[in-house]
Amino acid sequence: MKQDSMECPTEIKELLKVLYNLSTSETEVMYYLCEKEARASEIAEDLNKDRSTVQRYLSKLRATGLVERESIVEEGRKGRHYVYSVSDKEEMKEKVRKRMKEWEEEKLSVLDKI
C-alpha cells in the first residue's frame, strides 16, 4: 500500500519542522505512524524511501519523544525486529502543545533581550 492518500498536511509539516527541527520526510514518517504502527522496512516501502534513511528518521523521531519503538520476537523467525508507533495520539498532541509553549517562551525571551 503506497501512502499517497495519507499525505501529511502542510500545516502539520511546518509546525513539526519549527518545534522539533524535523525535515519534511521526517514529518511524513511521523504522520504515517499516526495512522498505524510499522517496521522500518514497511515504512520505507510505503513511502518509497531507502530503509537506512527511514531508520535515521525514526531515530530522530524517537529522540523527540513523539515516536516509540517496541522489540518483537516472532516465533519461527531468527532474531527480533522493531515496530514503531505513536502510541497515543492524545498524548502526542499534548507533547506538541507543551513544546509549542516552550518554543513561544524561548522566542519571547529573545525579544526581551532586544
What report would you give on this structure?
Helix content is 61%, strand content 9%. It is elongated. It has one domain: Orthogonal Bundle (Arc Repressor Mutant, subunit A), CATH 1.10.10.10. A hairpin with an 8-residue loop joins β1 and β2. It has a two-stranded antiparallel sheet with strand order 1-2. It is mainly alpha-helical and 114 residues long. α2 crosses α4 and α3 crosses α4. The chain has 5 helices and 2 strands. GO terms for molecular function: DNA-binding transcription factor activity.
Key words describing this protein structure:
114 residues; mainly alpha; Arc Repressor Mutant, subunit A; two-stranded antiparallel sheet; 2 strands; 61% helix; disordered N terminus
Strand content: 5-15%
User: What is the fold named in CATH at topology level?
Assistant: Arc Repressor Mutant, subunit A
Radius of gyration, in Å, reads 16 Å
Whole-number mean pLDDT: 87
CATH homologous superfamily - what is it?
A: Winged helix-like DNA-binding domain superfamily/Winged helix DNA-binding domain
Largest sheet: 2 strands, antiparallel
**Level-2 CATH architecture:** Orthogonal Bundle
Instruction: Give the terminus-to-terminus CA distance.
Output: 52 Å
The CATH class, by name, is Mainly Alpha
**Secondary structure: number of strands:** 2
Shape summary: elongated
Which percent bin holds the helix content? Answer: 55-70%
**N-to-C series of helices and strands:** HHHHEEH
Coiled coil: 86-113
GO molecular function: DNA-binding transcription factor activity
Keywords: Coiled coil
Domain HTH arsR-type: 14-105
